[in-house]
Amino acid sequence: MALPELDTAQATASAPARPVTRTRATALPEVRWAALAALAFLAAFPLDLAGAPAWTWAPLYAVCYAAGGWEPGLAGLRALRERSLDVDLLMVVAALGAAAIGQYLDGGLLIVIFAVSGALEALATRRTADSVRGLLDLAPATAVRLTAAGEEVVEATALRPGDTVLVRPGERLPADGTVLSGASDVDRTSVTGEPLPAPAAPGDEVFAGTLNGSGALRVRVDKDPADFVVARIAALVEEAGATKAPTQLFVEKIEQRYSVGVVVATLALFGLPVAFGTDLTEALLRAMTFMIVASPCAVVLATMPPLLSAIATAGRHGVLVKSAVAMERLGAVDRVALDKTGTLTEGTPRVTAVRGDTTALALAAAAELPSEHPLARAVVAEARARGLCVPEATDFAAEPGRGVRAVVDGHDVRVHRASGTHGDTAVEVVVDGAPAAVLELSDRLREGATEAVAALGRLTGSTPTLLTGDNAGAAARIAAEVGIDDVRAGLLPHEKAEAVREWERAGAKVLLVGDGVNDAPALAAAHAGVAMGRAGSDLALDTADVVVVRDELGAIPAVVALSRRARRLVVQNLLIAGVCIGALVVWDLVGHLPLPLGVAGHEGSTVLVGLNGLRLLRDAAWRRAENGTARG
User: Fold this and answer.
1) Is the pLDDT of residue 15 over 60?
2) What is the residue-wise DSSP string for 199-243?
3) What average pLDDT is seen over the chain?
4) Is 448 left (phi over 0), alpha (psi -120 to 50) or beta?
5) What is the pLDDT of residue 456?
6) CB contact set of 39 (below 8 Å; sequence gap of 6+)
């Protein structure tokens, strides 16, 4: 890992970076061999055309054939040994067949165009992977770790949870963690896609690879380097590249039979005319042309580039899609179910109202201060937010299932649950045996939750359903705020999963969004599962097909829209490939298709399909998805 060139000047001497490495196109062997084949062909072609002696151009054609054909030919022979017919082998055989009847130029042209097409495919694949894997280059190679003895420079990969690191102004953060002290603005564009720097203060979460602003920060490392967000993005994209979507599996299933059919038809197109007296050279040339134009190269390339490009783009904007299968499934969902706590809401309660004496709030905060319960933290936070003095408590005791009690300024203070109002949670403050106040608490709705629910409804054609284990009153209040009519409350984990299975058995393709351990069974049962990544449980993150790193609900309809666009590009690619192959085959069968034109048409359609699939790599594709869901 290394600092980008633009930022090396900002790095301090105490945290030197490794030399910057850049992936060059020429590092790909396919590009080198294609370039050599093209140069040899361009040197031989004018000599051949000018009528020069064969000894001047024949060796150059031989170099062209060898450079451009050895690798696909070898791969094809290996596949043949495993009883699999590779389309690459068909191309090489066709080129050799053309050379066998003296069509050296036509065969050489086929080899060159085929090699260049393969090089472009390799470049496209590399670009897809590099677009996300390049995030790793953003994380610095070293970090300044703070110890009892002072500062020490260590490899960033040696950091462990619990370590404290110092991040100076202008440096990139070496780890995912929590700010302990300091204040700054952090540019998180590379990880979350946020266009503006976000403030970083004690208690805030920060990510490796993001750029610190003008303030110094002390950060506690919370994860192992392998679990940093940038590392997870790269790992998941690599895993996704190894998976095959259902459409791709279907294409590969018919490819073998189709390729065998092409070989049989080629032999028939050569053998039958020759048997009836057609000139050998003419029959062989037409058969070779047919083999070229009928080969399903473009069809094979139709599926994965759009899906992998979509995965890469989503990853750059804080959404980790674990596989090509998951990306394809996202675009097929027609029903959405959402968890409440930690998904639609932040999962952190806050005091929304104080009914009674505000002095009682200070006493309650004092009694709750030693407690780690989320409600206790909310009460303390509200008292401090109001500027109240929180005195010291003694004789603290927790009463499991009810609340706490303590002695504060000589008063016996009890804080325990009371009946809620409008679905909220409420706690009663009792001072010296007399009720003094009732504190109403509720979970805070996530920013953009209403808009996200509406966007998901527009995408699927049906309003999402709320599935929650919370009480009916609290569920109904949240549902009303975000515009959900179908509410199922008080559900146990297996009941959530059963609700999803019911819809799936009825023919629906369900997208389940959750964050907790109790959501894992439903995530597994759904057609596609999305986990909120920041506070999500490990089980939910492992079970889900998609992880939203920045916990932004608006990213969910955006990635669904992106998936649908990827699916449309797959269909578009298959149509382009099918029409091109069909037109060229008909031309060859009923007319006279020149071999060079057949080669150009076949390889041109393959390149076109590959480049069409890469359109989703651009950031504009993500912005278009976001804008499309916002407009409806």
Assistant:
1) no
2) EE-TT-EE-TTPEE-SS-EEEEE-S-GGGSHHHHHHHHHHHHHH-
3) 79
4) left
5) 93
6) none
Q: What's the pLDDT score for residue 255?
A: 65
Evaluate whether 227 touches 175 at the Cβ level (below 8 Å): no
What pLDDT score was predicted for residue 124? 59
Residue spans per domain, the chain: 27-130+240-307+564-631, 140-227, 349-445
Q: Which residues are catalytic?
A: 339
Rg of the chain over Cα atoms, rounded to whole angstroms, equals 32
The amino acid that residue 122 corresponds to is: A
Percent of the chain with pLDDT over 70: 82
Element (H, E) at 614: none
36 CB-contact burial (10 Å; exposed 0-12 / middle 13-18 / buried 19+): middle
**Mean pLDDT, residues 434-458 taken together:** 88
Per-residue tokens: 385 = 């937010």
What pLDDT is attached to residue 341? 78
Q: Is the pLDDT of residue 1 over 80?
A: no
- The predicted model scores a pTM of 0.62
From residue 481, alpha-carbon distances to 24, 431, 454, 530 in Å are 52, 35, 12, 22
Nearest to 61, CA basis, from 24, 93, 96, 91: 96
Same fold, 140-227 and 349-445: no
- Identify the top-confidence range among 195-209, 487-501, 538-552: 487-501
- The tokens of 319 are what? 């959404």
Computed from CA positions of residues 618, 624, 627, 630, in that sequence, does the dihedral angle turn out positive or negative? negative
CA 480/CA 489 separation, integer angstroms:
14
> What is the fold of 140-227?
2.70.150
CA distances from residue 337 to 211, 434, 496, 512 in whole angstroms, order as listed:
36, 44, 10, 5
φ, ψ of residue 173 in degrees (nearest 5)? -70, 135
DSSP result, 569-611: HHHHHHHHHHHHHHHHHHHHHHS---HHHHHHHHHHHHHHHHH
Give the relative orientation of helices 374-385 and 358-368 as an angle to the nearest 10 degrees.
130
Extract the tokens encoding 512.
């389940």
Question: What's the pLDDT band for 18 if we cut at 50, 70, 90?
Answer: very low
Give percent of the chain above pLDDT 90.
Answer: 18
**How far apart are the C-alpha atoms of 568 and 571, rounded to whole Å?**
5
What phi and psi values does residue 539 have, to the nearest 5 degrees?
-65, -45
pLDDT in tens, 570-611: 899 889 888 988 898 888 888 888 877 887 787 788 778 878
List the structure tokens of 35. Answer: 């370039």
The Cα 174–Cα 580 span in angstroms is: 50
Q: Distance between terminal CA atoms of the chain?
A: 41
Pick the CATH number of 349-445 from 3.40.50.11810, 3.40.1110.10, 3.40.630.30, 3.90.1170.20: 3.40.1110.10
